[in-house]
């Protein structure tokens, strides 16, 4: 596609240069529109600057929230220790205790070897997410 090489009329050749040179000859509507566009451009620049500042503040807020989330995880772990220690205490108090007289009569070695003395329950946490995969692995070993 070729462009025509017709010369442009003189009033269309350099509209920006002609508007600067004869600013008084322009219509007031065009001058008002130019002022309006300049104000709009200035407002858009201010909006850009404010948006950049807001983006920076949001970045700082994100970092602070990440720190806060890490702190709450640590707090949750610390608050859980109370429950763990309480469970251990409950397990140890549920176990029958030998009196001082019983220890003197039987001796500590006899108590350690006596299978009738119940031991405390073992506290173990088993992850339930791995149970199906472990069952499949055991069943696969059984078929081999």
From TrEMBL:
Subcellular location: Chromosome, Centromere, Kinetochore; Cytoplasm, Cytoskeleton, Spindle; Nucleus
Biased composition (Low complexity): 15-25
Polar residues: bias regions: 127-138
Cited Pfam families: DASH_Dad2
Keywords from the UniProt entry: Cell cycle, Cell division, Centromere, Chromosome, Chromosome partition, Cytoplasm, Cytoskeleton, Kinetochore, Microtubule, Mitosis, Nucleus
Keyword presence, Protein biosynthesis: no
Family the entry assigns: Belongs to the DASH complex DAD2 family.
Protein name according to UniProt: DASH complex subunit DAD2
Organism name: Cryomyces minteri
